[in-house]
Specification:
Layout lengths: L1 E6 L2 E6 L9 H16 L6 E6 L3 E3 L4 H5 L4 H24 L4 E5 L2 E3 L1 H7 L3 E5 L5 E2 L2 H4 L5 H10 L5 H10 L3 E2 L1 H7 L4 E3 L2 H16 L5 H11 L1 H7 L11
Parallel strand pairs: 2-3, 3-5, 4-6, 5-7, 6-8, 7-10
Antiparallel strand pairs: 1-2, 8-9
Helix pairs in contact: 1-3, 6-11
């Protein structure tokens, strides 16, 4: 499902196993557990880097698992259960007391796209991998916290057009275009290059030794719509005068 490795002040969270890393109840629970562990071990200078093995960063919710329920009503209930149980994962990332970096070396679709852009920084492999909001093609509406995340994170001068293309046309966005849209921070030629760049960025950020609690609260203050939908509150902290 996922592994967690600590490299000095860096936490490396890696999605493993199934090549598509579909977000079913087991993987969602594993991610939430890992993020809870990371939070409990956070110190000044900690940084989270999230990566994945294989062709996919994550192919979104596990719809085949939902469809295997049998009846349409049972399948719908399974989808709704995944939507609700995934919400705390995004809330945990938004409130994590450290910088976060997504190393996207494979396709990131739907809920997997949301997972990637819920990090502070997104680094992506050039070439075949795409970012893709599949809901319009699948006939599914967006959960409110997906919409809030997309609006909060895609904020370039071309944001309106980018959101339209990503959400309403199901555009499959490659790394170079994603950089132009302001969705991705940088593009890299190989899987190894993405991870190496993410680790380098993590070391730079960790070297600042920021107080994690303050960092997390400042992050939350930047995204009031996300916080409102996710049920997060902002606290004022004064650690130094």
């Amino acid at each position: 499902m996922c592994t967690l490795e600590k490299r000095g002040s860096l936490f490396l969270l890696t999605l493993t196993g199934d090549d598509q890393h579909r977000l079913n109840p087991a993987l969602i629970a594993a991610l939430l557990s890992a993020l809870s562990q990371i939070r409990s071990q956070a110190t000044p200078g900690s940084v989270l880097i999230t990566a994945a093995h294989g062709r996919f960063f994550s192919n979104g919710f596990d719809l085949p698992w939902a469809q295997a329920a049998g009846s349409p009503s049972e399948a719908r209930d399974r989808v709704l259960r995944m939507v609700e149980s995934y919400k705390p994962v995004i809330a945990a990332l938004l409130s994590l007391p450290m910088p976060t970096v997504a190393a996207v070396a494979g396709h990131a679709s739907a809920a997997g796209f949301v997972l990637a852009i819920s990090h502070d920084y997104v680094l992506m492999k050039s070439g075949r991998p795409v970012l893709y909001m599949a809901e319009v093609d699948l006939g599914l509406t967006l959960p409110d916290y997906f919409t809030a995340t997309l609006r909060s994170k895609i904020t370039s001068s071309a944001a309106a057009a980018a959101l339209r293309d990503v959400v309403l046309s199901g555009a499959k966005v490659k790394a170079a275009e994603a950089v132009k849209m302001g969705i991705v921070d940088s593009a890299h030629d190989s899987t190894e290059g993405v991870l190496e760049a993410a680790l380098h960025l993590g070391e730079e950020l960790g070297g600042r030794k920021w107080k994690g609690e303050v960092y997390g609260e400042i992050r939350k203050s930047l995204y009031p719509e996300m916080c409102g939908v996710l049920g997060l509150t902002h606290r004022d902290i004064i650690s130094k005068l």
